[in-house]
Design brief:
With about 100 residues, the chain is an all-alpha fold. The chain has four helices and no strands. α1 (about 1-25) packs across α3 (about 50-65).
Length: about 100
């Protein structure tokens, strides 16, 4: 769970690091596919790079998010990322159910 906290808080930093590495290696702007390919290994290395205090803070925040709720910024980001898919799925299910009740 601490990994999710770190990822949520530092995703932009990690992506920026990946893009910088790709540009230094190739001299070109990073392609989306290449960034995705490198994301998980970079995230794993980033987690190993953190000191014990930062990991403990992330774990404490993860427990707080589990017991209460994430802060408003995290909630808004999650809604933005997943909201459209959830609403689309709900609408599709309701359409199917409505069609079945007419038969």
């Amino acid at each position: 769970m601490a990994c999710q906290v770190i990822e949520e808080e530092r995703k932009a930093e990690i992506l920026q690091q990946i893009c910088k590495e790709i540009q230094e290696e190739t001299g070109q702007k990073a392609a989306h596919k290449e960034v995705l390919r490198r994301y998980q290994p970079t995230m794993t290395a980033f987690m190993l790079w953190l000191d014990k205090k930062e990991l403990q803070e992330a774990q404490a925040k993860a427990e707080k998010w589990t017991n209460q709720a994430p802060n408003a910024t995290v909630q808004a980001n999650t809604a933005r990322k997943k909201g459209k898919k959830i609403v689309k799925s709900f609408a599709k299910d309701m359409y199917i159910q409505a069609g079945e009740t007419r038969k």
